[in-house]
Amino acid sequence: MKSILVLTDFSKNSENAAELGVKLSAKLSTNLLLFNTYVTNSAEAYVAEPWVAEDIYWGDDDSKDNLNKLAKTLKDEAGELGAAHHQPVIYCGNGEGKLGVIIPDIIQKHHVEMILMGARAFNPDDDGLFGSDLNSTIQKSSRPVLVVPSKMDPEQLHKVIFATDFDEADMLAIHYLVKLGQLLHFELEIIHITHQDKTTRSKSQKEIELEKQISGLKYPQVSYHEIKGDDVSKNILRIFKESGAGLLAMVHHQHSFIMRLLHDSTTKKILDNQEVPLMIFPSKMK
């Protein structure tokens, strides 16, 4: 059976991610794997790569104790879902090392369907979007990564915004979201932002092909909109907030325009503070 993987550092937001993981596991009929990495070296050697809490857990025993406590709490919550729901098996794992190194093996070994991570507070000294923890996970993951800011209830997820730049990997992500929508019953709105002055532009072959595939989807709650605007990042966030959507989704490409625009200082701070739940699809998703 497939599993939802929750990468936890035992912070409040990672607890929120774990609680969401239980609900999603019940909806998607998967198991739930809680995983924590720890460090055993000295503080001077710590470079913020392993996924650990601000109060660093210095060994295997601390990690296992906290995982077992979290698992017990989640098992109680799973039991409250009722007999009509799938009861996920909740199990734990931990290891020493960098997430970017161990993630591929975890995904393969445990048949991971999706990865959940709690958002971290904005840190202006972090390199890249969200800092090294999420970046290393995305770079090495072959499954979608959902970053959770606070409590999130899949029962209240009525709309998802997917921002596209017509890359080939976008259609794979859209198919994934459609399947997820069939289980969670949300509306999927696909958007592309174009500059105001490009009123007479001709459509690219990629755009024509993606629009054709979208129109052929057998899912009544999907729509596509081209939106004109000069500031792409702010327009995506504006549309997200005005639409009442509960999740923003996009494909991660190291050099795509979407990931470049997300490094804008204003937008990066908004997303690093995680006012916006974000699902990131690796470009090499399987």
Can you give a write-up of this model?
- The protein is an alpha/beta fold and 286 residues long.
- Helix content is 38%, strand content 22%.
- It has helices at residues 12-28, 60-79, 99-109, 132-140, 168-184, 205-215, 232-243, 257-261, 265-272, and strands at residues 3-7, 31-38, 90-96, 112-118, 145-148, 159-163, 187-194, 222-228, 247-252, 278-282.
- A ten-stranded mixed sheet has the order 3-2-1-4-5-10-9-6-7-8, sandwiched between helices.
- α3 packs across α4.
- The longest helix is centred in the N-terminal third of the chain and has 20 residues, at 60-79.
Number of strands: 10
Number of helices: 9
Could you list the spans in which at least 5 consecutive residues all have pLDDT below 50? 42-57
One letter per element, helices H and strands E, the order comes to EHEHEHEHEEHEHEHEHHE
**Biggest sheet architecture:** 10 strands, mixed
Question: Helix amount, in percent?
Answer: 25-40%
- Shape, per Cα inertia axes: globular
**Taking all residues together, what is the mean pLDDT?**
81
Terminal residue distance? 17 Å
Cα-atom radius of gyration: 19 Å
- SSE class: alpha/beta
Task: Give the strand line-up of the largest sheet.
Answer: 3-2-1-4-5-10-9-6-7-8
**What is the beta-strand fraction?**
15-25%
Summarize it:
Helix content is 38%, strand content 22%. The chain has 9 helices and 10 strands. Strand 7 (187-194), helix 6 (205-215) and strand 8 form a beta-alpha-beta unit.
